[in-house]
Amino acid sequence: MAIELRPSQALRLLHELSLVQVRDDAPDLSPRQLAILLSVYLETPPHTVRGLASRLGVTKPVVTRALDTMGALHLVSRRRDEADRRNVIIQRTVEGALYLEKLGDQVVAVARALPR
Amino acid sequence: MAIELRPSQALRLLHELSLVQVRDDAPDLSPRQLAILLSVYLETPPHTVRGLASRLGVTKPVVTRALDTMGALHLVSRRRDEADRRNVIIQRTVEGALYLEKLGDQVVAVARALPR
DNA sequence: AAGGATCGTTACGGCAGCGGATTGTTCCCG
DNA sequence: CGGGAACAATCCGCTGCCGTAACGATCCTT
């Protein structure tokens, strides 16, 4: 069965979540960066710059820059595709998995505390 | 009863949501801006710059700038507090209400489409 | 072997956000 | 009534992201 949620609950959820995120001085990713990160971790590999760009409807430089930033944070890593050396394969990292695990738990906790 | 949600569902929810947001070329607000907007619309007035800043754990200039930006988008408006003219009262707008209504509906739609 | 196509990255100029310090009003209290 | 406190806005230099346009490397086709 699907998750039932009323609009007012949805907004409260977003509110609590955004407050947690803003306070947390975990480096707050931009919406685009988060979208890329989630795509890499939730969708089936392999992931390329080109694929992610078209998936999100943004330009390739946006993806490259986001990978630069998140790479510096060790949330993702890059590797040349040896089969086709033009491609770059985006890989998951332990730190990235932990980051998302924590994020998921935060959402669950906030949702649980939501008034019915 | 509380909203029950598994971590994997939570991440999928965020994923779909971020994709919708990124594609939508609705001006995507930064996490901080969204947090301020939601606070203004979900918490009981009156809202002041100082109050919002301490609520979010950010500095006052951050709030002022966010209000500048969102004011230009007509998502909020400002008014001097006549009782204490040092204060500025942040007010809701019709456009802001519509923006959040739409956002809430998006969350609901995404949640409903989530695999159980 | 060569031309063009594809891929990711980088360069560029511009815009917006940041923290910290300062300013100008307005209020409060001794 | 005068000096300090409180409040929001502004200024400063900096950093990071944006879109467009190039670029180098690699592949593919003929």
Automatic annotation (TrEMBL), chains A, B:
Molecular function, one GO term: DNA-binding transcription factor activity
Domain of life: Bacteria
Pfam families: MarR
Keyword DNA-binding listed: yes
The UniProt record lists the keyword rRNA-binding: no
Alphabetical keyword list: DNA-binding
Gene Ontology BP terms: response to stress
Ranges where the HTH marR-type domain occurs: 1-116
PANTHER family: HTH-TYPE TRANSCRIPTIONAL REPRESSOR YETL (PTHR33164:SF43), TRANSCRIPTIONAL REGULATOR, MARR FAMILY (PTHR33164)
UniProt-recorded name of the protein: DNA-binding MarR family transcriptional regulator
Natural source organism: Ancylobacter tetraedralis
